[in-house]
């Protein structure tokens, strides 16, 4: 029995000489990564080119590694993050942050080439995360829908809103 | 059978309820989840939102049942109810769907997101889908001042805000406008909300309409902030607060429920005043000043060594403070010795505090908590307006005055929680509130009688009331004695004058003697006035005298700005005789500016500390802010300086507990502080965690400077754990009030007993209190007698430094009777120089037509100004504009 099994193994190994090779010549040859592959995280902009992140803290709350830290700026109306930091040395690329984000600001992209010599270099600040475009969600602009007034969008000007009511009027 | 409980059958489960509750309250107390919006434990029920529907079965044979509003249904024994009944569940689902038709798409940018009662209730009802496809109604916001931001789109029309602001807090500049689906909650014209309780709208509103404005500039979600139980440092009521912090930075203050004191509410001085700890006027570094006035910054080790120098001599005087904790005062007193320790308050304040101690400790007069005041069936206010000195007490007094007595309600069979009926019935039989003060008060609007006697007449009035109580046949023109006699639990509030306090205590004693459970409430000036008084130290004037007779002593001043306590002349004269002046303070003051050694110390939020409120209730606050470079607490610095000076006793206070023991051994009055928190927590892994269980960003927050996570703080001196680990207690020491599915402040209903009462240093006794001798009546003051006016915003030293509070401070006034003003040719708005003793301050005239003749009210506590020695004889001179006063 033992001899047969050994011979069979040798035979199978020999046959592999004639199989198509699976080795990818990385980095000369790049693998295909689907657009929804969960790699490096970016912060995108809305179609008007403004920062999309409204510093709602939901990504930070959902992150199982607690590796997102941000702070809302002092501005009262249009919320934006004063700082936004991801410690990629902790991130497990689970994509929960992307799922939680109500504005599609935070997105995972098909890039995993983030190796560094020093762990400290894996701490990305907002300027490292922010990209110029809208990423995978081309159209969405949170502030066009939200009820808060923003510069250039007074009350009642958002999608599906009536003009502000006159509280002194008694008509329905 | 227990007569104090009754049993309800809710979905075949038996729950226990208290008689007099409504079904909603009973269900929530039994930890059942039932959604609601308009009911509030303090505001009662009006049945406005229709969200709390349950099915009520009329006996065991009834299988159909009727849908009723739980909040408007009194509990009855054996009642059978269903919450899960499908028709009722659908009813609740439709109600919330309707509420949300106009709700904005704001949650991510809404300041209450994550602690929103509307979010919680929507999740509870499991409403997920929006079917309404028409446009949303929108509203314009109003600018409501420095404390509150308005975001009216988020309103769900539950009416809690107007019910709180107008009905509960007595405000009249906020209301509801419009009709139908357009109703609008705001002011007639956009402007600052007048009421000093406006900040409570943030917690009362179940949505994000009212936003804590200063907090919004350094916003964090509730789940991201460390929360620490604390005590408000801004007045002598001692309201319980929760201080929230993130990354070493103070974020906000929220209410911490305490049934006896503040209940569910805080005043705006407490809520927004704590921001002083971020103010530019905070002293963060220690410094030494040489003879030329040049400052050399010192690190903490050098500052401690410098403080050790005076302690090595035998010639040192310590001056304590009513805004420092017992611990800090005790450490200084132990180091300089009881004979060299002085209280650092004016003679007038010292007199009031000493009298309060006589009344509380020696005479054992029963004291009224704010909760007692709210339940009182007759109230007499003597001498001072509590609205500005003890705002939460004033709010409680307003509750008793604005509602019919519980007896009157019982006769009419109106449950106490039935808010609108209970208020309406007050119109016919109001609870007596009699105000006898020299000046008008801000409770006059709900008083049944207002008298305006001058201080001497006030003493006579108090003596007359007592005489009439003893001899009912005596003439009683004011009928006050008759009213007090008819009550069963009257409350007398007194302040401002020690003779009047004694007279008021005697009225309570007389009432007790005739079998009426009367109580006294004494107004004291500062957060730890009573605690400092219990050290029995002489006032500041005695310290100044000792300095002048001594041989150039070294002076150590603890967290005190002496310029607010004494006239400038005597102070500077005394200080020209001293060898050195060392000042420990958390803020920059005129006193630190003249010190030879100014040491930065932690604020109340940087250290564990005990303070004693005006009832004699000792309460402890804990280190709440964990910043890397925060100054150490005063008593740590004093201890280390003491050790450096070779004072062996200081080595014994290694920890907070040791210092408390040393203090208790010296001062038996304060011995009860030992039991404030059990000391079994040392090394305890199960300490209540101050970080919430979803504290985010822990591996990234410090990563900008170093990617490796630092060790958590140890916080060895606290019963609270500094991390997320531990067990949440179900009682007072609960940093986070949270229950699954209940993320908003409404979660505190799930813990009806979770309040921390503190320790009463002078527990109530049943014996009849002793009668107090009255001092001889004072000789009449020549000319006009000036009395102090304290203001909610602007008269308290620390809260004045919070930017939002500072912007609410009005210009200081001299309040006069129009006749007195006319004889001097003064009219409203005129600027005058007011001289009392040797101090002159500039004020603008305000006329008060009801004011007693010959009396003037003078605003005190003005930032950067020496307080005039009040009460005192006033000289008014026309001021010459442009000339400094
Ligand atoms: S991918 Fe996962 S681990 Fe990484 S930041 Fe997002 S939530 Fe955190
Ligand atoms: S969830 Fe999205 S919008 Fe919110 S803070 Fe994170 S990135 Fe910004
Ligand atoms: S009030 Fe509540 S439900 Fe409404 S936007 Fe704010 S968080 Fe969301
Ligand atoms: S503003 Fe808030 S409290 Fe007032 S009615 Fe609207 S939702 Fe209720
Ligand atoms: S809570 Fe019962 S109707 Fe509003």
TrEMBL record, chain A:
Chain residue ranges for the region called Disordered: 153-172
Signal peptide (from-to): none
Cellular localisation: Cell inner membrane; Cell membrane
Chain positions recorded as [4Fe-4S] cluster 2 binding sites: 63, 91, 94, 97
Binding note for cofactor: Binds 2 [4Fe-4S] clusters per subunit.
InterPro entries reported for this sequence: 4Fe4S_Fe-S-bd, 4Fe4S_Fe_S_CS, NADH_quinone_OxRdtase_chainI
One of the Pfam families matching this protein, by short name: Fer4
Lineage top rank: taxon: Bacteria
Catalytic activity: a quinone + NADH + 5 H(+)(in) = a quinol + NAD(+) + 4 H(+)(out)
Keyword NAD: yes
Gene Ontology cellular component annotations, sorted alphabetically: plasma membrane
Gene Ontology biological-process annotations: aerobic respiration
UniProt domain 4Fe-4S ferredoxin-type: residue ranges: 43-73, 82-111
Function: NDH-1 shuttles electrons from NADH, via FMN and iron-sulfur (Fe-S) centers, to quinones in the respiratory chain. The immediate electron acceptor for the enzyme in this species is believed to be ubiquinone. Couples the redox reaction to proton translocation (for every two electrons transferred, four hydrogen ions are translocated across the cytoplasmic membrane), and thus conserves the redox energy in a proton gradient.
Protein name according to UniProt: NADH-quinone oxidoreductase subunit I
Automatic annotation (TrEMBL), chain B:
Naturally occurring in which organism (per UniProt): Acidiphilium rubrum
GO biological-process terms attached to the record: ATP synthesis coupled electron transport
Domain 4Fe-4S His(Cys)3-ligated-type per the UniProt entry, residue ranges: 87-126
UniProt KW keywords: 2Fe-2S, 4Fe-4S, Iron, Iron-sulfur, Metal-binding, Quinone, Ubiquinone
Keyword Iron found: yes
Pfam assignment, any one: Fer4_Nqo3
Catalytic activity line of the entry: a quinone + NADH + 5 H(+)(in) = a quinol + NAD(+) + 4 H(+)(out)
Signal peptide limits: none
Gene3D superfamilies cross-referenced by the UniProt entry: 3.10.20.740, 3.40.50.740, ADC-like domains (2.20.25.90)
InterPro entries: 2Fe-2S_ferredoxin-like_sf (IPR036010), 2Fe-2S_ferredoxin-type (IPR001041), Asp_de-COase-like_dom_sf (IPR009010), Mopterin_OxRdtase_4Fe-4S_dom (IPR006963), MopterinOxRdtase_cofactor_BS (IPR027467), NADH_UbQ_OxRdtase_75kDa_su_CS (IPR000283), NADH_UbQ_OxRdtase_ferredoxin (IPR054351), NADH_UbQ_OxRdtase_Gsu (IPR010228)
UniProt cross-references to PROSITE patterns, sorted A to Z: 2FE2S_FER_2, 4FE4S_HC3, 4FE4S_MOW_BIS_MGD, COMPLEX1_75K_1, COMPLEX1_75K_2, COMPLEX1_75K_3, MOLYBDOPTERIN_PROK_1
Name of the protein described by the UniProt record: NADH dehydrogenase subunit G
Family statement drawn from the similarity comment of this UniProt entry: Belongs to the complex I 75 kDa subunit family.
GO CC annotations, alphabetized: membrane
GO MF entry, a single one: NADH dehydrogenase activity
Boundaries of every 4Fe-4S Mo/W bis-MGD-type domain copy: 225-281
Domain 2Fe-2S ferredoxin-type: 4-87
Co-factor(s): [4Fe-4S] cluster
